[in-house]
Amino acid sequence: MLHFFRFLLLITSCAVVFGGKDEDQGPVIPPSKCEVCKFLATELKLRLEETGKSKEVLEIGHGLDNKKKRIKYNTAELRLIEALQDPHICEKILEYNIHKERDGSNRFAKGQSETFQTLHGLVNRGVKVVMDVPYELWNHTSAEVAQLHRECFNVVERYEEVIEDWYYEHQDQDITDYLCRKHVLKRDDQKCLDEVWVPKAKEQSAEKEEKKSQSKKSKSKDKSKLKGEVEGKDEL
């Protein structure tokens, strides 16, 4: 009803007026410990994947030393340092925005939310949009993302040895499982780690495919049943 009312305002007066900040953008929900670890692990995984296929071999030792040690870049300390600090991995968190239309940890995602895509679209078409938040601040970091950013630094500092242990000894395990499930969230809620965002288009497509599959199975059963009845009549 609220969306319809706003749409009606747009048609009748070519202006959209939004109320208070809490009413339109929803309450501020601080990121959970699970969400902090989830997105830290996600960004670390992505950054390491950027250099994961490198076949570079590093030579470690002094220039006059004939016994230089050769180390694969994939397992070198330099690669881990660059992934964590160049720039700091937690700076990637600032690329996220709040998507109020999504539930759970999926509300943190890169790119504009559907709400602000719509608002920017209205402004670009010359529609006057009135909000408590000035237009200049629409794209500023939200309170939730700012806190997610701060907490990310805390997790990296506290679990640096765990990250190093994974890098040197357990890269065969998923970083999210090793860092978050086994250590950071060992005694805490881990539900957010299993939350995966499925775009509406894909979700609808999956539902259609499931319905088609169920329809085919139903037709197949009907044919088998009909065949059995016909064979039964023939025997009589």
UniProtKB/TrEMBL annotation:
Residues in DUF3456 domain copies: 33-192
Pfam families documented for this protein: DUF3456
Coiled-coil region list: none
Region spans: Disordered: 201-236
Keywords for the protein's UniProt record, in alphabetical order: Signal
UniProt biased composition (Basic and acidic residues): 201-213, 221-236
Signal sequence segment: 1-19
Keyword Signal assigned: yes
PANTHER family assigned to the protein according to its UniProt record, in alphabetical order: CANOPY B, CTG4A-RELATED
Family the entry assigns: Belongs to the canopy family.
Name the record gives this protein: DUF3456 domain-containing protein
Lineage of origin: Eukaryota, Metazoa, Spiralia, Lophotrochozoa, Mollusca
